[in-house]
Design brief:
With 118 residues, this protein is mainly alpha-helical. The chain is 50% helix and 0% strand. The protein has 6 helices and no strands. The radius of gyration is 29 Å and the shape is elongated.
Length: 118
């Protein structure tokens, strides 16, 4: 992955973050042995737009997604998954409603249960 910790992400400027993303794109493009022209055509963007992205310049989010898709790197979007979080109280209520034994209901007269002698 990357050697940059979460604290460093917060301390980085927007420009530095954009440059880091551009370096990520360039690294994976070169790793796949693709030229800027080939990747740009696969992503449906111009070569100059890809060059801007790799240099950390301003591009749209849609452009970034197109390039990630062309590089087969959409997996990095998993960080945007929202986990389902259940509160401890809701979890306790749910656990109380779980049945631990079965009950056999014997039908009685008029749909009422007979009272036990106990």
């Amino acid at each position: 992955m990357t050697d940059i910790s979460y604290e460093k992400w917060y301390s980085m400027s927007d420009k530095a973050l954009a440059e880091h993303i551009g370096a990520f794109i360039k690294h994976h493009r070169l790793e796949q042995n693709k030229t800027q022209d080939i990747l740009a055509k696969a992503a449906g963007i111009s070569r100059s737009t890809l060059s801007l992205l790799e240099r950390g310049q301003v591009v749209t989010l849609a452009t970034l997604i197109q390039v990630l898709r062309a590089l087969d790197q959409l997996r990095i979007l998993d960080v945007f998954t929202i986990p389902k979080i259940i509160s401890p109280l809701a979890l306790a209520k749910e656990e109380q409603s779980v049945r631990y034994r079965a009950r056999y209901n014997v039908p009685s007269e008029k749909g009422k249960r007979k009272k036990s002698n106990w």
